[in-house]
Sequence to fold (211 residues):
Amino acid sequence: LLEDSPISLEPLLGKLFAEESSLMLDDSFVHGTGAGQPLGILNSACLVSSAKETGQAATTIVAENIINMWSRMWGPSKKRSVWFINADTIPQLMTMQISVGTGGIPVYMPANGLAGAPYGTMFGRPVIEFEFCSTLGTQGDVILADWSYYLIGQKRRGIQKATSIHLRFDYDETAFRYVMRIDGQPWLDSAITPAVSTTTLSPFVVLDTRS
Fold:
């Protein structure tokens, strides 16, 4: 393939490796165990998980969940925070409402309903679909995060590439190796207890499992 391709495949391989490594890092920053990989926010000691509502049905999201998550976000982080959601949660967000008397009002749907685009924000902060959020109903399907409190250390040289025709010489194959030295973990080693409250706060807030 390397000899017969009308274009050079090496730049394409480098591009594909960079894309795949970026996906793996995104996953590890959320779910990583910290053993041989970055420590993800879902496994960190500073994570705050907001409880579900009493009697809340499985695999649902209600307006009170979002309100309570916002209340657990550390104050200085609110202006930098971003909502990350699994695509599975969109139908739940679109149908969220706050009860008013015997009815209710939608809290995420735009004023002109399905005719218009969703606002794309909650409490003024962006809402971004993220494929590494957990599936609907499990912890991490909705994440409110201030990523300025996540530390990443990376070797200055970045991705190192090496090519060898010797490893599988008798098969007429060329081996490509890419190495990236990187690690990461949340800056805080515990949730924050405010001076005049016992309710803990954090730059990383998720919603408890609803099952």
User: Anything to note?
Assistant: The two ends are 50 Å apart (CA to CA). DSSP finds three helices and twelve strands in the chain. The mean pLDDT is 90.
